[in-house]
Amino acid sequence: MPPGFPALPSLNALRMFEVVARHLNFRLAAEELGLTQAAVAQQIRGLEASLGVRLFERLPRGLGLTDAGRGYSVSIRSALAMIDEATRLLRPQSEQLTISVTPSFASRWLMPRLGDFAEHYPQIDLRLLATDRLSHFHTEGVDIAVRYGQPPFGGGLNTELLMEQRVVAVASPALLAQKGTPQTFEALQGFVALHDAHHYWPLFVAALFPGHPSPSARNLRFNQTSLAIEAAIGGQGIALASHAFVKEDIAAGRLAQVFTQELRLDKAFYLVWPRKARQSPLLQVVKEWLKEQAADS
C-alpha cells in the first residue's frame, strides 16, 4: 500500500495560511474566510507549531512573511490551485455560481433577465440568493453580490460599479387619469406616498418643491421596494423607485413617471466579490453579462 502523506498538515489550515499570506493581515483574511480574527490567528499558530517553523513575523502594523513562509506560500498556493483545477474538471458539464442580491433587486431587475442568461450560458448553473442581510462570501458559498451603497464594502473585496441610482416617482396611469398629475405641493398632498425602507420622499420633495416639508398626511410604508412598486401598479399611490426597477413597467403602460425630475444619489449598485489570487473564468462571464444588462437599464 502507498505510504500516504503522514506529514501533511490539515488542508483547512493550509487554505487559511494561503489567505493570510496573501493579505498579510489577520483582519482582512478573517473577512474573506467569514471567520473571526482570533480563529484565523489560532489556526496559523497551530500550523506553525505543527511544522516547527515560524511562517510570519508579527510586525507593529500587520504581518510579514519569514523566508521560510515566503517559499512555503508559493508552493501552497500552487498546490491549492492544482486541487481547485482538479475539482473543477470533475464536473465540466455544469458549473455553479452563486450571486447574492436583495429581494427587490432580484424580482424587479434580475429575474426578468435570467432567461437571457440561461439561453446564452446553458452550461452555467446560476444560483440566486435573495436576502436583505449581508451575505458572507465564504460561509454561504457566495461568489459575487450586488450591493447598494458606497464603497468600500469591506476588506478583502473587489468592487466595481454596476448601475448609478436614478430615483423616479411612478404611479398607475389610471390613478393619474382619475386625480390628475400633481403640479403643486398641495396637489401632491392628495396622493398617498408609498414608502420603502430607503425613505427617499423627504429628499425627493425637497428637490421638487423647495421649501416645503415632506408629504405627511397620507403614507403607506413597506419594507421592500418591490412591494411599494406593486402598490403603485395597483393604483394605491405614488412610489419612489430606481428607474431600472420600473423601466419595463413604464414601457408596458403599467406605470407612468409622474414628474420629469429624477433624484440622483451618491449611492449606487455595485458588484462585489472576494479578492483572490486566482479568479474563476466563470465569475468573469457573469460579471460581464451583468454589466451588459445594466448598460441597457
UniProtKB/TrEMBL annotation:
Which superkingdom? Bacteria
Keyword Transcription in annotation? yes
Sections of the chain in a coiled coil: none
Alphabetical UniProt keywords: DNA-binding, Transcription, Transcription regulation
One GO MF term on file is: sequence-specific DNA binding
Key word Transcription regulation present: yes
Name of one Pfam family that matches: HTH_1
Q: Where is the HTH lysR-type domain?
A: 9-66
Gene Ontology terms describing biological process: DNA-templated transcription
InterPro entries, A to Z: LysR-type_TF_proteobact-type (IPR058163), LysR_HTH_N (IPR000847), LysR_subst-bd (IPR005119), WH-like_DNA-bd_sf (IPR036388), WH_DNA-bd_sf (IPR036390)
Family per record: Belongs to the LysR transcriptional regulatory family.
Please identify the protein, giving its name as recorded.
LysR family transcriptional regulator
Taxonomy of origin reads: Bacteria, Pseudomonadati, Pseudomonadota, Gammaproteobacteria, Pseudomonadales
